[in-house]
User: What shape does this take?
Amino acid sequence: MRGFGFVITSIAVMALVLASGTGHAQTPVYEGGTVEGDGKITGTVTWTGERPTLEPFEINKNPEVCDTHGDGKRPSHRLMVSDSGGVANAVVYLEGITAGKPQSTAAATLDQVGCHYEPHVQVVPKRAELTLKSKDAILHNIHMYGAASYNIPFPDKNELVKRMRKAGVVRVQCDAGHGWMSAFIHVTDHPYYAVTDESGAFELDDVPPGKYTIKMWHAHWDVTGKTEKDGVVSGYEFPDPIEQTKSVEVSSGGVTVDFTLSL
Assistant: This one.
């Protein structure tokens, strides 16, 4: 949804690009520039009610590296709730904003450490470089689905760089026998995205005055199925991510928007 009442110092404030020869509007191009005002959206994503008991994942390959807890299990990282109820690793963003502060081009990293992806959820600007690493001296691979499609083997400690060229959500998993490994990358075409911290808090700053649609995304925590290879669990199936939508109006100063998750 468009913002209004602000000045963007760029050639065009907003452009609707028409598909060649079709007359159908494509996604508007985001224009970054100088934002007047001090608009800010802050809030939290919190858990309410009874909390689910998440079944740990079985470490069934390379326990010498992967069994970091020493019990043959890997606690699920799909839902991280603090003692105060804050939900980490949710993504909050403005949908359809077409002008505002400049988009970042900062590089990002996805690491494989102890058979776990770090970070589990992250935001990466479109066209930015993503460094893929492994600190584990065993075979991994990074299999990406969605807005990026890569299947990259890591036979030992190594790193390489890929450019994220398309906006959207990328789901990452390891197909080298470590089926519990998962991560999500939100490749963004504008800068108004945030990942909630350990307390469930987020902040979007330098927001132009206007009315917006703000969305919350969470990967979901339920296991709905398992895949097996030679009688051993090789992968897990999960529901579609949870998405919630609210309306928000930004003027001068800050505004608060909160989201809640529950069973």
The helical segments are 63-66. The two ends are 30 Å apart (CA to CA).
